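Now produce a polypeptide, keeping tokens residue-aligned:
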Amino acid sequence: MKSIQIEDDLYHFIASQTQDIGESASDILRRLVMPESLLNIEQANNVDAAKSIFALDNSIGSGSASAQSAEQICQASAVFSELEGQQLQAIPKMVERWLLVLSIIHKYHIQQFSKVLGMSGRNRTYFATDKDTLLATGSSTNPKNVPGSKYWVITNNNTVKKINMLKEVAEQVGFSLSEIEQLITILAPEHI
């Protein structure tokens, strides 16, 4: 059996997913991140149950689609877990809610978040690593920093545009379609 170190927030999330008294962290993670087909193969081959399909230290290499998928599921779960505690509907301004959601996505998808730099419209760049780049793309972009990150985003757009931008961000970092729908429901249930 191998040991891994995890941060407190992730530990609390894993512990909150307990379904049976005495369920181990390995059992919880296996249930949360391993597709049923992989579980059946692993059981059929009598593979040691303590081994995980992904290495948290990235030692398995980039060629494993299953490992990347499992890691993305875990990251998305962490995003949703943190969003549950935020009480977004109590935040009156949509732009503040939206920036908070972007910040939490960034927190759990730091490596993938750089993909947002390619997002743009007809005349505007949506994300940059500095305010001036966004100011140069238009006179009314109103750039704001995504809290906790080096990224800046234009904020002078309506709620529907913010929702569409969030969908694209979530897609860029690897959320599934159902996870994207769940994210939008959390951000703006009044627009569903």
Summary: The chain has two domains: 8-77, 88-191. Residues 88-191 form a domain with the Replication modulator SeqA, C-terminal DNA-binding domain fold (CATH 1.20.1380.10). The chain has a mean pLDDT of 78. The beta strands are 127-128, 143-145, 152-154.
